[in-house]
Amino acid sequence: MADEVVKVKHKHKKSKKRTEEEEEEAADVQADVPDVPDVEPGKGEGGEKKRRKKKKGSGGDGGEGGSEMGVNGEESEKKRKRKRRALVEGEEDGAVVEEAGEDGEAASSSSGRFTISMAVAGSIVDNAQSQALASRLAGQIARAAAIFRIDEIVVFDDGDEGSRVPKWSEDETETSGAFLTRLLNYMETPQYLRQTLCPRHPSLQFAGTLPPLDVPHQARKHEWIPYREGAVTTKLPSSGSGSCVNVGLYEDVVVRQKLEPGTRVTVNMGESRPKPGEARILEVVPKSEPREKGHYWGYTVRHASSLSTAISESSFPNGYDYVIGTSEHGEKVRAAELTLPKFKHILIVFGGVAGLEESKELDKSIKVTDVRHLFNIYLNVCPGQGSRTIRTEEAILISLQYLQDPLMRALGMPFSSWCE
Question: Which residues of 371-392 are buried (b: 16+ CB within 10 A; e: fewer)?
Answer without folding.
Answer: bbbbbbbbbbbbeeeeeeebeb
